[in-house]
Probable nicotinate-nucleotide adenylyltransferase (Prevotella lacticifex), 210 residues
Amino acid sequence: MGTKTIKNLDYFTPDATDSGLRIGIFGGTFNPLHNGHVALAKAFLRQAGLDEVWFVVSPQNPFKKNDALLDDSLRLEMVRKAVADIPGMRVSDVEFHLPRPSFMYVTLRHLRKVYPHCTFTLLIGGDNWAAFDRWANADEILANYDIVVYPRSGEVIDPATLPANVRLLNTRLIDISSTLIRRRIAEGLPVDALVPPAVAAFITEKGLYR
């Protein structure tokens, strides 16, 4: 990994200058971010030969109902606190400034325009890869970006069936979901072993998901 970095990314700045980074895009609602997300991002950073991984916090996933979605600013703040001290991990609120729902081809187009000399690699789950042909402008994404896929528990993906610019993430599966965490909090059960310490403290401080 390189030592270059883009300054002041945490809150997106449309006129930010780029510095030629190899950037991994890890998008999600992160409602909340958990230890599985962090482990995946670390593996992504290492295995894809990236300079940085950007957690792109989404205000609205077009494939999901967001009835239980926490306020945008709270989710963004949780992710910022969780990765603040992890080398190579950054946070972007770029999708807060784009049309909703958040389509990844729009996000990638915008990032490429703002950071024209950076290269972007997309990280998605096996469930999203299975539904990739239903993504808006999927062909555009596939033609212009490398994609790394992480299979979820119970998913089997044959590497031989993948396009040349799509690869599997080789990492231990961590069976944690944000849904599980929200349910445990609502039931008064501890989640300290499932989320980063900063996230656990933030949830407790703000009384979230109760």
In short: The chain is about 30% helix and 15% strand. The radius of gyration is 17 Å.
